[in-house]
Each structure stands twice: as structure tokens, then as C-alpha cells.
Amino acid sequence: MAKTTHGASRLDAARWLRSQTAGSRKLVTRTIAAGLLAGLFTILQMGLLAWIIHAAVILDNSAMSLLPFFVGLVLAITGRSLAQGFQARSAALCSHTIRQNIRIELLSRWQALGPVRLLDTSAGTLAREWVEHVEALHGYFARFMPQQILCIAVPLMIVIVVAWLDWLAAIFLIISAPLIPLFMALVGMGAEKLNQEHFQLIGRLSGHFLDRIRGLTTLQLFGQTRAAAETIHTRSHQYRRVTMRMLKVAFLSSAVLEFFSSVAIAVVAMYVGFGLLGYLSFGPAPELTLFSGLFILLLAPEFFQPLRLLSQHYHDRASALGATEEILRRLESDPESVNSKYAFEEHPDEPPPAATVATEERIVIQSAHVAFPNGRVGLDSVSLVINRGEAIALTGPSGGGKTTFLHLLAGFLRPCQGFVRVFGYPAGEQRFGWLGQSAFMVQGSWADNLRVTCPDATDGMIESALQAAGLGDLLTSRSGGIHSLVSEAGGGLSGGQARRLGLARLFLADVDLILLDEPTAALDAESERFVLASLQRLSTQGKTLVFATHHPSLLGLATRVIRIDGGRILNE
Amino acid sequence: MNELLPWLRLIGQRKARLFVGAVLMLATLLSGLGLLALSGWFITATALAGILMAAGTAIIFDVYVPGGGIRAFALTRTVGRYLERVYNHDTVLRLLADIRVHVFRSLAASKSQFRDRGSDWLARMTTDVDAMDTLFLRLVAPTGLAALLSLGLVGILGAGAGFDFALVIAVFLISAFLTATIALYWRTGARSYRQQDALETLRGDVIEYLEGQAELTAAGVVPSHREKLLANTEQWSQNQSIIDQRSGWHGAISMLFVNGSVVAALWLGLHLFQTDVISGPVMVLIPLALLAMNEVYGMLPDAYARLGATIAAAQRLNRDSGYPSAAATEGSARSIIEDSAAMSAPALAWSGVTINKLAAVGVKSDPAAADQMPPGFSYAVRPGKHVGFVGPSGCGKSTLANIAAGLSAPGAGRCQLESEQGVVAPCAHHAWVSYLTQTTHLFDDTLGNNLRIADPNASDQQLLSVLETVALTDLLAQLPEGLDTWLGAYGKQVSGGEARRIALARALLRDTGLIILDEPFTGLDETTRTVVRDRMSPWLAGKTVICFAHSPAALTQVDTVVTLERLH
């Protein structure tokens, strides 16, 4: 069962990879065209080489009379190199464009998920997909994909030329070519089988080193580093022996290729040699000349070269497929939840709230119903009207729907029934202030951290916002003031300080509505004082505050306390 | 380039293997070259002989010697390639083992700088190590072989076809060599050197963008941040693309020079042939041999386009492992520490240690420590005392514990461990300390081996007894292979609470005078906690015990509880 789904996802991944080139047809075509051109110039080069030798040795032409052919030869090798260079260039550009497009697609996907569902997956994992996994596709688009076509087209061109020269030699090449993938597949299957047998052992052995590095502190504490170094040595060599057992089989596939290309040269040489000596009287052999014989000989290795390149690039395909499966999982993960962005349009019978004075001064939530993709009901027909300037405290047991309610007001979630209007606009359409449970900080100075959300803030505004959030003392202890790095002292900020940094952002923002999720949770007493004072101050400035909390003092600050449990408002 | 030296030296310790590997590669390349050149020679010779024979001249043409040669080359090329690949990959894996041991030793000897680094650092280090173990196969060997083969060919040409001929070919080959190596490095080195660091910055940007989604959305600035992120990525990817393009062009131009040498050899050879200095077949042999040189030159651009990145990788490894000073002093310093686990209960005192302006409040015992107190955190624990420290998360408990265990040095002030024999040097602290760190690390190894890290000579009976102390007898009964059951990613997945108790058992098993426990009961339910706390007592008796926790309920049985608070 697991195996079939795996196989299916591989197929999907391969199909998806191919479909990604659609937007960059031009570059793909250019890459392949350059590769074909390089192949043509190679044939031309070999033909001219053979002809010059034939003319000189057999026809006794003088060097000067062959000068035009030399000029042609120089042009041919120049053309070949130019074509190859262009191939590399187009391939790099093509891969670059496609990868950038995939990144844009991932970004839109993140956007569509919204801030809440997005961080169901850790930011580290998402970042790895965006950076590494997309990067792992490079080899596929730049090398493997064009080579897939070239490894058929170029040998085909060569076989046609050889057939024109001597059909018997062409037949030999034609026979050997399909044998190669066959043998390679056989050997590859053998390697795969070995691989599966050793999978667990290999995983265990190769992970051993990282595991010991990760636990180095523990090893040091127990004075076991020397013993651990010994085991790393032993395990690494064990790993080597197991891996080598596998590689010995896996390398047979490249040996097959090498064997055919060597044998092809040898057989062609013998056939042509005997033919030229007049020993062979069958088929086209008596017609062989030094030109045709030499030409065929020179083309024989070029016939196998594209296949050799393909097998070299084969691991590019494997790693791209692996990465694609991860990317696809993200891109295809249930794109529109029940709380679709477009849910509004699906309920045209909703009363379109006219932008009257009344709605502009109010936040209106009317019979809003929120369900999660897993079917759990987040909010069950909640209705509430909040007037401008109110401070609303949301309380209730955890999991009762407080955070969902805040997400609804923020527009992070859309109701599948009912509607939300924030001062006359759909939720999330206008800027608002947000302070989540986890602190958000960027690498850089204090000023950078405030300008993330308020790009136009002046230094003075930033300074007073930080003061207001109670970070003044910390700032004066730093030499560069607001331009000193946040993490200058090494350890970064404490949870409370980070929360206050978030508050400073709220002071700076010119917004009407501020949403806060447990603003005092897990704070030290001092930070808590500052949060309370700050909220008081924001409230007196006339801002509308909605916060989820259990904190008694915060409840006291509220103009109204709303209790939410089981997705319903219990009192009002 | 100097960054690579320690690694080249390390690799160089396997001289014999490297030599054999290089010889195998050379034999394979020579077979390929010989196969093509001899075949060309053979065809030309047979063509000439055929004409003579057709004209009625009676000549005897020996087809067997060249024919045999061609078959032999075809065979040696196939076999040589296979053997070369197998042998050299074996070498690479041996080098990998050497490098891993070396890196591990260096990291173990260099103190604590790497401790706080996350999984990204680990992943990057793996890539860096891989860059070092292929140094020989990708960089050194192809460069050496290209140079050697070119020199050899030019030498033979000089002897056989004259100085001028050899000189012309040498100019072409040198140009090809320089184009594919130094020139390419010169044009991509700096860019390639920066790429990995740029990638880390990019990753940081992405993570910030993601973690800040809610706030950025609220502030309505997502589009501008998104554009910036895309632009940065575009820039990074563009740089990578430029490296690839340059590598491609240099490879193509290098090929042009090699093919140019073929044309030149043909042109010059033609004159020698027409003045009867060389025969027709030999005239053919030389350009064909040169044509085969494309194979070895083709291996170069890839390695040189990457050289900048390889140097950066070496530099990071050198920095992380504190090469070379740490590796040199390791042996002597380690041996003293590791061999003497100290028994008697020592005294421990922090004085004036500064971390985040932490202060101990509610200190009710040990008034001796109170006089002449410098700023910062000060507290003295008498020998054999059990002291619990309680404070909110982030107040610096783990840092105090790290300092006590000698894992990190205080920013200011000092932490002194005093045994009956006298003061213990900070670097020797951990010989006296059994320390349960806040984070649990179990190794991908058997349960027994995980415990025996604390005491390699512990008997199964001792292990069972300590497992009973931490209430893991039930778990043990479930395990199919008992103490030999493999834990971790490839074996039995234990829960967080079970892992914590295994780590606690490990800390108890190590018989030292001082035990430091940082949040010993994380992930344990109330009942288990009580059971374990009671059963631990005999193990802690007679020792100095320091326990850190977020609340008094999470402490072990202690004589004194000290409340910690952050002043700011």
C-alpha cells in the first residue's frame, strides 16, 4: 500500500517537474537547439578531420590546397565551443527562471494559507523547502532535462551520418544503443535491491556522526569524547564497507556504458581496418575509404557521449524528484479550507452592509461560523458589536475559541457563514495592530525592528515608542541607542523584552484596532507592569482594543469582558 | 588557499591509496587515449596497405599486433574505469572517516563555541565535510592528471616531432589548462566563496518573513516584504547562474583550445608527413591522441567553479574546530580530565557572576557568602548540601548551571569548585560534576549504551537498578531486547518523559561528588515525579546537589530553596 502511493507520488512529481518548463519554453528550446548545434558541429569537425587526413594521405594533396578545409575545421571547432557555451548559458538561465517561478508560486501558496495555517508547519521547514528544495531542482532543469532529449537526438544524427557512410557500421551502433539502457536498468535494479536491504543499516551508520556531534556536550560532561571518537572511526568504516558493497554493483552500470563505447570503437576500428585491407567482401565493406572509415571511427565515441552524460546527470533527477515530492505536498495541501477567502462570494444572500455612519463607528460580527479543515467548529454563530474606543477582554478556557475570535477579527480566518465588518470594511482589509503570543524579531537594530512594520517612522518616533514600551533603560545601556543591534549582548532579548518590542510597534502604528493574544502570558512582573500601562495608554488614545487574557488586572482594564467557551459567547 | 592546507595534509596521510587511485585513473585515461589513437593509426595504415595491395604489391600487413592492442585498450579502459571508480570511492569513504574523526576531536577539544548552534549548522557542517572528502577525487587528481598527461604528450612530441611542434601544442594545452582552472577560479572564486553565507542570510530572511506573517499582515506591509524577499532570492540565484554560465563558457573555451591543438597538430603533422619526417599513420595518431585529452580537461571546470565555495567550507570547518591549536593540545589536556572522576563532595561558589542582571533573593542560609558581595550573582553551596534554585524561565538558571559545570565561562565574576584537595580549575570542573542539562540528548544507540556513557564499566544489575529508580522498569519490560534495544530514529521511539528519565538515570549513574540537575522532571506527571523524587534520595546521599527548576514542586528533595529573580 505504502509502496504504491510512493510510486504514484513519484509519477506526479515527474509530471509536475515537466510541466514547470511550460513558462520557459523559449529557454528550453534554446538550450536543446544549442546542444543539437554542438552535435552538428562535432559531426562536421570529425568529417573535416577525416577528409583532410584522407586527402593528404591517400590523395596526396598539398597542405596549401587543403587550407580551405582547415579554415572550415577551425570554424567547426569554434562553432562547437560556442554552441556548447550557449547551451550552458541557456541551461543556467532556464533553470534560474523556472526556480524563481516556483518560488513565487510557493509564496502565493503561503499567502493563500494565511498567517494562522501557515505556521502549522515550522518556519524552519518552510524555509528549507523554499531555499534548499527548490535549489535541488537546478540539476534537473539545467542538465538532466535537456540531456534527456539530446541523448536521443544527437546519437540519431550520428547514426544517420554513419548509415550514409556505411550501413553495416550504423547497424552495429543501432543494435548496441538500446542494449545499454537495458543493461543499466538491470544493474540499477540490483543496486536498488541491495540499497533496500541495507537501508536501515546505512541510515544508522551515516547518522551516527551527526548524532555524536549533536550530543557532544553530553559526551564531554561524561568524559566520553575519546571513546566516542573511536566509535565514529569504527562506524564510519562499517558504513564504508556497506556502502562499497552497494557501489560495487551500482558502478557496474557505468561500466556497461564504458564497455559498449570501448567495444564500439574497437569493433569499428577492426571492421574498417579489415575492410580497407580488402579482407571483407560482404555488404558495404569494399566501398570503405580512409575518409569514411576514419569518420565512422571518430563518430563512434561521440555516439555514446550523450548517453554517458545522461547517466552522470541521473542523480540530478533523483534529488529533484525527492525535493519535488516535498514541494508538491506543500502546494497541493488542501488549498482552500472551509474558510475560503471566497466564502463571501458564495453567500450572496448576506445583507451587504452599507457603509453608513453606524457601521463605520463599529465592529460588527454577525452570526459568524468558523470551522476548521479537520471539521472542528472554531466559532458557532457568534454575533457581537464593538464600538470604537472600547477595550474588550476575551476570557474562557483554552481551546474555547478566544484566539479563533481574534483571528476572525484580523481576517486571518474567514467565516463560512455570517460576516465581519471592521469599521465598515471587511476584516483584515485595513491596517490594524497585532501582538501574538510568540515574539517576532528580525536580525538588526532596534530601529530596523520597528521599521519592519512602520517603514516611514522617524528616529524620534522610534525612540519615543520604545520609551513608551518601557525599553528606555535598555536602550540607554547600549552605545548606539536605537541603532544598536538588538542581539548585541549575545543572548538576544528575554520573552518579556520581546513582547515590549511588539508593543513599541503598536505605539508607532497609526491604527484604529489593536488585537492582542494573551499579552501578559509568561511574563515577569516588570514586563507585565509595562504591558498593562501600555494598554491603558493605547486605550486612552482612543484605540479599540480586543485582547484574550486571564489576567485579573487586564480584565479590570477592559470596558467589557466577553466569555467564550465551546465556540460561543456565553455572556455579554 | 591556505584554508585547504590542513585538509590536504590530512588527506595526504593516505599517500599510498591516493597514488594507486591516481595511477588507476591515469591508466583509464591512457587506455581511452590509446584506443582512439591506435585505432586511427590502424585505419590509416590499413588504408595505405590496402591501396598497395590493390595495386598488386605483395606486402604482409600484420593486423594482429595493432588489433590486439586495440582490443587490449578497449578492455583496460572498461576494467580500469570500473576499478578506478570502486577504488577511489573507497578512498573517499576512508577519507570521510578520517575527516569525521578529526572534526569530532577538534570540536571536542574546542570549548563550547558550537554548543548553541542549531540543526542548520549541523546540516551545513555535513556539506562542508563532504566538500573536503571529495577534494582529492574532484580537484587534486584531475588537475594533476591533466597536467601530467599534457606534459607527457608534449614531451613525447618534443622528442619525436621536434621542438617547434611540441611548443605549439604546449601553448594550446597550457591555454586550455589555464582557462579551465585558474582563470575560471579567478572569475568565479569570490562569488562562489560568498554563496553559502548568502544562502544562510536568505534563509534567515525567509524565516523572519514567515514568523512575522501575522504582524506584517496586520501592518499591511506583506507585499513590500515579499518583493524584497523575492529580489534577494533573485540576486542569490542570479549569482549562482553566473557561476554556472562562466563554468560552462570556460569549459567550452578550454575545449576549443584542445581542439585547436588537434587542428594545429594536423597542420604541422601534414608538413612533417609531406617532408617524409613522419609516416601517414603517425600523422593521424597525434591529433587523435590530443582529441582524447578532452576527457580529462572536461573534469576541471566543475571543480574550479566550486573552488571558492570549497575554500569557504574549509574556512568554516577550520574556524569551528579551532584548527590547529585545539587539535594539538587535545591529547594532554584530555587525559587528566577523563580519567579521574572525583568522588568526595566538593563545595561550589558563584561570586559576582553576571548574566542578565540576575539576583538571588530569599537567600536564607549560608550568610558567610553575603559579606563583601560584588555586583552580580553570588551564592555558596557547602559540601554535601542539597540546594534548589527556583526562578522563571529565561532568568539565567541554565547559564548558572553551565558555568558551574565548567561548560561556559561567566561574563564577569567567577565560579569556584573546591574539593578536599583544593580548588579545581574551571576546565576540570566536569570531572567532578554529573550534570543533567536542560535539553535531553539520547544517542542513536542501545538503551544500555546510552546509560553506559556515564559509566562504561557499569554492570547490567547497576543499570537495572538505576532504571528502577527513575521508574522505567515498565518501559524496560516492554522492550523486545531489553537493555540492547536500539533507541532513536532507527529504533524504539521513546516519549519525552521517558527520554528525560533515561537522561536522569544516566546522570545518577555517574558517581561524582557534585550533581547538577537542570529541570530534572520535565515531561513527568505528578505521580511519577513523586515516585522518582523519593527513590532518588539514596543516590544523592553524601553528595553536593544543585537543582534548578521553574517552581519548588519541580525540585528534588533539597535542604534550601533559593528564589532567583531577574532584576531587569
Description of the structure:
Chain A is α/β, with parallel strands linked by helices. Helices cover 64% and strands 10% of the residues of chain A. Chain A has helices at residues 2-19, 25-57, 67-118, 123-135, 138-165, 167-214, 216-221, 225-277, 290-312, 314-332, 343-346, 357-360, 402-410, 446-451, 459-468, 472-476, 495-508, 525-540, 552-557; strands spanning 362-371, 377-387, 391-395, 417-422, 425-426, 433-435, 513-517, 544-548, 560-565, 568-569. A 6-stranded mixed beta sheet of chain A has the order 6-7-8-3-9-10, sandwiched between helices. The radius of gyration of chain A is 35 Å and the shape is elongated. Chain B is of the alpha/beta class and 568 residues long. Chain B has helices at residues 5-11, 15-54, 64-109, 119-133, 135-161, 163-180, 182-211, 213-219, 222-274, 280-292, 294-297, 300-305, 307-320, 325-339, 397-404, 429-432, 447-452, 460-469, 473-478, 496-509, 526-540; strands at 347-353, 358-361, 377-381, 386-390, 414-419, 422-424, 433-436, 514-518, 544-549, 560-566. In chain B, the strands form 2 sheets. Chain B has a 6-stranded mixed beta sheet with strand order 2-10-4-9-8-7, sandwiched between helices. A 4-stranded antiparallel beta sheet of chain B has the order 3-1-5-6, with helices on one face. In chain B, a hairpin with a 2-residue loop joins strand 5 and strand 6 (422-424). In chain B, helix 2 (15-54) packs antiparallel against helix 3 (64-109), helix 7 packs antiparallel against helix 9 (222-274) and helix 9 runs antiparallel to helix 10. Chain B starts with a helix and ends with a strand. Residues 323-341 and 362-373 of chain B have low confidence and may be disordered. At the A-B interface, helix 2, helix 3, helix 4, helix 6 and helix 7 of A face helix 2, helix 3, helix 4, helix 7 and helix 8 of B.
